[in-house]
Each structure stands twice: as C-alpha cells, then as structure tokens.
Amino acid sequence: MAVKAVVALAxxxxxxxxxxxxxxxxxxxxDRILQSDALGHHILALSILxxxxxxxxxxxxxxxxxxxxxxxxxxxxxxxxxxxxMLFQILLDAAxxxxxxxxxxxxxxGAFLAANPISIFFCSALYSEQLLMVCIAAALFALRNGRPxxxxxxxxLAALTKPIALYLPIVLIGWLIYRYRRAVPALILTAxxxxxxxxxxxxxxxxxxxxxxxxxxxxxxxMLYGARMIASRDRLEFRQVQRALSADFTRRAxxxxxxxxxxxxxxxxxxDHPALFVKTYVAGIVRMFVxxxxxxxxxxxxxxxxxxxxxxxxxxxxHLRAFTATRGLVHIAIGAxxxxxxxxxxxxxxxxxxxxxxxxxxxxxxxxxxxxxxxxLAGSAGLGRFLLPAMVFFLYFTRPPTTNWARTPTPDxxxxxxxxxx
Length: 422
Description:
Blueprint: H1 2-21, H2 26-33, H3 36-49, E1 54-55, E2 58-59, H4 66-78, H5 82-104, H6 107-114, H7 117-123, H8 129-144, H9 148-161, H10 168-180, H11 184-208, H12 216-234, H13 238-247, H14 255-272, H15 274-290, H16 294-300, H17 316-326, H18 329-358, H19 362-378, H20 388-394
Antiparallel strand pairs: 1-2
C-alpha cells in the first residue's frame, strides 16, 4: 500500500507542475521547451519519422538513438507535440519510483525520488534523464532478482539513451564476480549488453567508417570540462569560450575524427593546468549537488529570469548576494523548497550510509560504486540533471536500517543466492 501511495504521489506532483507550466501552449513550446539539447532531440525524432537519424542534413553521431526514437514513437501516434511526450515521461518516472521501491525493499527511497524537484522539472522537458533513470532502475531490480541477462539488456538500453551509461557495465561486472564468486553471471550480462549496443556501433561503422559508439566523450571533455577551466582562468563567459573552441573543430567532416581532436585538445588543457583541472572538477561536482535549478523552473512557469554567470560571481557568498539582489520571490521560494528537499535527502543518505558501513551488505556495494561512477563522470559540468542517474544508486542508503532484504531469502528465490547460480 505504501509503494502505491508513493507512486501516486510521484504522478500527482509531476502532473501539478505539468499543468502549472502549460507546455501545450505554442509560445511555451517555441520559447522555453525546444531549446538546446531538447531541440536536438526534437529534430532527431522528426528525422526518424522520415527514415533517417540526422540533424540539418548531417548524420548524427553525438546523441544515441533510444530517446529520440522514444519521442518519434509518440509523435507517430499523436503528432509532433512535445507536451504529449512529457505525459509519457511522467509515467516513466512513476515506473522508476516503483522499481526503486521494489529493488531496495522500502518505500522511502521511492518517496525521495517522487518528491525530487529536479526530476519533477525534467519530466516536463525534452531531456533523456527520465528514460535513462528507468533503464537503470530496471537493471537494479533485475540484479536484485538474480537476472543478469535482463540487467545487461536494460543497461544496454541505458547506454543507447545516454552514452554516459556505457561505463556502467564495468561496475556491474565487477560486482557480479564479487557477488557470485564465478564468471557466468558476469559473462551473461556482458554478452547481452554487447548484443544490445552492437547494431548502433554497426550503424556508425557503415555511416562514418568508425566502429565508435558516440562522439560525446571528446565533446564533453573539451566543451564542458576544458571550456570551464579556460573560462575560470581567463575570467571569461563560459558560453563565449564554448563558441570559440567549437569554431576550431568544424573543419573535419567525420565527427569521430573531430572528437578525437577535441579529446586531444582537452588533455592538453588538463596537462597544462593540473591544479586548475582539480579545482574546476571538484567545483563542478559541488555545483551539481547544490544546483537548485531555480532559473529552469521559473522559466517553465513563465517567470522572466536571467542567468547568473559562474565566472562573474566566483564565491558562494557572491552568488547568494547576486541571487537575492537580481531575482524575485518566485526564485527565492523555488530555491527554499529545493534547498529543504536537498538537505533532507543528503542528511538521510549520509546517515544511512554511515549506518550501512557498520554492517555492509553486498547490494550496497553495488549502489555505492554506481553512485561514485556517475558522480565522477559528471565532472565539471555542474548541471543538476547530471546527478539524477547517480541518485538512482545512492537512494539505496535512505532505507531504514531494519530493511535487510539482502540477507533474507524470499519464498521463491534468495536475493543473496538466486537458484540459478547457487
């Protein structure tokens, strides 16, 4: 009953924000929704309906196909209406809440996800985080029930949703070997994962002559991490640096050759300024954890707002002064609600992690490693949505310490020793 209530809460909160933001309004779609990555996903979805996977006449290599295909499937039935996609994303988030409750054996982790302001906001935006989260949650649920093949398939879908998940099998394979003390479950997960992503790699080989997965690695290293370092060093506006760097790498037509050059340039920047790299890397992770997304929420609600420059206001005190001086009561209210939520989430998670450390169970090791992986990969970007896949893992530590399913066999299968691997 508690799990059903939490799922209902998740749907209700997201519907309230959806109705308040009115994304079906034509002006909202043009001015607020179809911007940046969301516009790219929209264009790719339309290209899929035309039998391609391209933007502006060029085959796509940066973004992977599953989320645009998800949008395209909805567009095929309901027409190119982003707001309909958002309703389906609300259901995806509700599914993530249910899967997390079941995988972690408690309704409390699901309640924290249900009330998460960042997740609520991105249900009403055309970003891939909701699809990524449900794939990861489904993989954890499969592993909890001793199904490595299903987990491998879901992680493959996660990678096809967002390339950052391509590194997740490293954690899962290591945990399966540790968990079962044999290689068979890990080999099954690896085989299914590989089969799931192989068609996309084959497409890239045929299209670009490179058996690569995505160009996002080199792009993110230079345009998110390297650009942040240059902006901080030279006290420049971040997007200005991004535009300047991007102009240097438009010569090569092959995107995989271009991303190799971008990666090499990023490593040069890192090597030339190692202390600055560490500083911006740590600062980006901190920003990700404390990102209140007040501007995004305010814009979705139709409140005019301006962006605060990280470079211009470097200290936390300066940010706070600039925030209170330039933004109104709506921003302050949004920030207050999100701050209260984050304090509760991080406080309960820290307490739960300390309690877990006193008597660690095996599944907790997987969740700790998965959270560390996604936090580390987020790096200098500092975007609040980049924390969401890590949150799927560290919500495990919000369970009450009396929840000890990892050591308690279920009637049909023990999570500790599933019948097929015992």
